[in-house]
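In practice, a research group might receive sequence data for several interacting partners and want a quick structural hypothesis before committing to experiments. The following worked case mirrors that situation: the sequences arrive first, and a predicted assembly follows.
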Amino acid sequence: MRGPHDVGGLPDGPIETESHPLTFWEKQIDGLRAAVGAKGLVNTHENRAAVEALGDDAYNTLHYYERWTATLCRQMIQKGLLTQDEIDERVALIRQRLADTGEIESEGAAP
Amino acid sequence: MTDHDHHDHDHHDHEHAHAPPQPDDKVHSYYQILGIALKELLIEKGVVSADEVRRQIEHRDSITPANGSLVVAKAWADPAFRQRLLADGNAAVAELGFHMTTTKLVAVENKPDEHNVVVCTLCSCYPRDLLGLPPSWYKSRAYRARVVREPRAVLAEFGTHIADDVALRVHDSTADMRFLVVPMRPAGTEAMSEAELAALVTRDSMIGVSLPDQPGH
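A structural hypothesis for the assembly, expressed as tokens:
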């Protein structure tokens, strides 16, 4: 059975041939993953396997760097470097911080 | 330091930060906040330092397709280098000071009867050490899905029309193997220096979805 990442040869629509630059947030995630990789904590193959294991729904609805964020989160928990509780706590704290500074937050809920 | 200090980040391109949201830029989505949380926690715990993350971003920003252009231009100008590049990509680009960190580099050469194009159908593998980060379309589902099935139609969407009697080879990258297309040297460039030649070699021509610029354009 094809995983959600295994799209070679499937039909699809037109290609948006103009590239858009990475956003600040995307660059941060790219740099964070690279730094974690440079420490030897996660290698390319683990990353690939983790993205492929996200499942159809997550894979197909998340943007590229959102997928990498979801997998980095799982990997850090699996490797005992972070706990789900402290991550949830920090997410709540950041939400509060954004609300306090009046920055608009979309309704994006936890999956 | 937090991600939201970005207004006074010196390595940050303000134009991008204040541009309208892009397809991959859902402002303050759950995952965006999660990413910020991971970065803060990993730095606080000393798993990585803020400086290491910053250095990685700076390093990524420093690699541009101009590196690949130099490789191609040298291959055009120096037949012996071209042979070495086709035989052992890693060793040849190292001669110019470019190092593939963990992957094998395979250079594939366009010929009058053969055109090459590169994809990563499973994800986004790309010769980042030579060309920088891949363009957004390279990571798109549409490109990954279609280019292996109907490459001529896909290239036509990029404005590149490959004659029917030219073989079209599509190379699917892996976590371990990355491809660099060496386009054909444009006619009328015989008197050009390597630097002048390099200016003709575009990113997309090294992925194979387009051809190099013509001299004088």
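Before designing any experiment, note the following. Residues 26-62 of chain B form one domain. The first strand of chain B starts at residue 104 and ends at 109.
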